[in-house]
Amino acid sequence: MDRRSFLKTSALGGTAAAATTLAAPLYAQGKRTLTMVTAWPRGFAVLDDAATYLNNMVNEMSDGSLTIEKKAPGELVGAFEVFDAVSSGQADMYHAADYYFIGQHPGLAYFTAVPFGGTAQELTNWYLHGGGHDLHNQIGEIFNMKMFLAGNSGSQSGGWFRKEINSAADFNGLKFRMPGLGGKVLGKLGASVQNIPGGELYQALSSGALDGLEWVGPFADERAGFQEVAKIYYTAGFHEPGSGLTASVNLDVFNDLTPAQQKIIEYASMATTHTGLAETLANNGAALA
After folding, report:
1. Does residue 215 belong to any structural domain of this protein?
2. In this prediction, what percent of the chain has a pLDDT beyond 90?
3. Strand order of the sheet with strand 175-177?
4. Same domain, yes or no: 69 and 26
5. Torsions phi, psi of 148, nearest 5?
């Protein structure tokens, strides 16, 4: 079986790109606007920062001929609905972490992070020079999407807890938020693993609906305010050594863009990856202190 056939047969059914009528793009005097749905609440450090940077870069590099209209969760679709929205054409593109969508295809985990996997630099090396981008697009084609790495949070922290964790046994019965393959590992330890959108985490932790959560790292976590409702923070994490973010464009929409517009999205995504990682690393120390 060749690699493309394997990727297609690995796709988990139910949510693969059912063709629907594409949302009509906005045209005005030769200008085009793409609707981008995101998995991030407005103002969230690192993640919405990356989506905003990508948005602004595309707008500025195209000199206004191609613009992005960014929508937060709930403004068009929910945080975990962005993949299907772009696949079906309800939205033109999304910005999210692809490990949210391992139910659609398990291989998508590798484009965010896998436990004890690649660091941010190693992920970027593989993606740009080791065939990673090609694999990402082969999966994307199954769902009618063109994929780009567009952000990286660096190594993520172990998370916030309402009680100390002294052994693996302490995870048994713990209500903990961790998406992706890391969450499956904690599930094997007996944790009740939750995948809750970022905008709902503060309330869930403060109310006791969660016993703990992992989010990103000191810079993003401080802005989210988790230190106000949980006093135990473990900075070392096994689950995400260097977490990539994805910008995905509906393939029909992408193919309808000019070659120059396609390159703008590609290189704006690359710039977002490097700028986002630098922003995180530059701010983590002060936030942790």
Report:
1. yes
2. 89
3. 192-194, 175-177, 212-213, 159-161, 232-234
4. yes
5. -145, 135
Domain C-terminal end among 198, 215, 234: 234
pTM of the predicted structure, to 2 decimals: 0.88
Q: Is there a single domain that holds both residue 100 and residue 220? A: no
> Any residues with CB less than 8 A from the CB of 191 and at least 6 apart, and which?
171, 172, 173, 174, 175, 176
- Mean pLDDT of the residues in the chain: 92
Q: Identify the CATH number of the domain in which residue 182 sits.
A: 3.40.190.10
**C-beta separation of 27 from 230 below 8 A:** no
Q: In the numeric block, which tokens belong to residue 160?
A: 């916030």
Residues 6+ apart with CB under 8 A from 11: 104, 105, 139, 142, 143
pLDDT in tens, 136-188: 999 999 999 999 999 999 999 999 999 999 999 999 999 999 999 999 999 99
Count: domains in the chain: 2
In a domain, 239, yes or no: no
Which token pair is 106? 């398990």
What domain range includes position 181?
159-234
* Residues across the chain: 289
* No. of helices (H) and no. of strands (E), the chain: 10, 11
CATH number where 47 lies: 3.40.190.170
DSSP-assigned letter for residue 89: T
- Give per-residue pLDDT as tens, 6-65: 455 555 444 444 444 444 444 445 689 999 999 999 999 999 999 999 999 999 999 999
